[in-house]
Amino acid sequence: MSQFYDAIVIGGGVNGGSVAYQLAKRGKKVLVLEKDRIASKASGAAAGMIAAQAELQDDDPLFQLARKSRKRFASLAEELKDLSGVDIELINKGMYKVALTDQEVHEYKQIIDIQKRAGEHAEWVTGDEVRKQEANVSDDILGAMYIEHDGHVSAPQLSQAFIKSAAVLGVTIQEFVEVQSILFEGEQVVGVATNEGEYKAENIIVTAGAWSSSFLRQTELDLPVYPVKGECFSVRTHQPLLKSTIFSHGCYLVPKKGGRIIVGATVKPHTYNQQVSVEGVAGLLEKAKHLLPSIGEAEWDQTWAGIRPQTADGLPYLGEHPTYNGLFVATGHFRNGILLSPITGEIMADLIERKEPAIDVHPFRLDRLTATNV
């Protein structure tokens, strides 16, 4: 016997959890289907950076989306903890985007000017000024873009907080349920077929990360979303080596509680293989030692990899299918899934309720790269 919902979310990562949570806040009956465990893919593997300014360089639609999403975290952290009891471990101690070459010095100073014109705060600090605040970093650092408002959270904790808060509000969470196909009547979504039977809903939201495009092939919409493996490792020390996140080209170091530092991440496109390679970790370790020489004396903790969804133009997909009513997609966030999760949930809930989102979502529409829109 089929079960009926207002909305079914395919994928139990951070963005699926955010969408479910926002819909539940608006009184919707929601089902989340996850083929594995909650946050078992990219959402659980991320370092949790809220790097709206460190990751992005131009004042473009993605930057605007990131800025708005970053502002949500302070209130969201309290809101989710009150509901779920889960602390997302929000830390706002700023971020240093460090320059190791004269070319990077020039480039980062230009980025600071762009971001200041956009109304954001960023400042250039010399290498000596960086080392005054972070005594353990390398003498090779020539200077840095200091970003006061970029911080980080625990990505697994944020993902769990969204899901558990959604459950408190009445959302049904089902793990180890694999969606096999989406069901339609004409051009209207009516549900999904799974390995556990059929579930009916007038709204289906695909938030399955790098696996999202497979659900849309039956609709003849080819979303150019592809997987990018990112390998990471972590170390531990008794005395913290860093206070703020150090972000550089090809490597970042994120200090977590308890003297733990997460180091990431490699970029290996077009693979779903989650094995961690010796080559990948060795390359990251050399880059990390160049930034923070004393990390070589730290205790090894663990390694892991996540599969992140990238798009052909670097922008996420946020919107409704151009042909099938009630079929929505939120994917392609690449390295910004954690950062963009608050605003993603709000946007998708607005679209499902046929409301105008607070930000222009036209640049993120599903058909922007099809032949008729090039």
TrEMBL record:
It catalyses: glycine + O2 + H2O = glyoxylate + H2O2 + NH4(+). Pathway: Cofactor biosynthesis; thiamine diphosphate biosynthesis. Pfam families: DAO (PF01266). InterPro entries: FAD-dep_OxRdtase, FAD/NAD-bd_sf, Gly_oxidase_ThiO. It comes from the Bacteria. SUPFAM superfamilies: FAD-linked reductases, C-terminal domain (SSF54373), FAD/NAD(P)-binding domain (SSF51905). GO terms for cellular component: cytoplasm. One of its GO terms (biological process) is thiamine diphosphate biosynthetic process. Keywords: Oxidoreductase, Thiamine biosynthesis. GO terms for molecular function: flavin adenine dinucleotide binding; glycine oxidase activity. Residues 6-351 form the FAD dependent oxidoreductase domain. Its EC number is 1.4.3.19. This is glycine oxidase. It comes from Salinibacillus xinjiangensis.
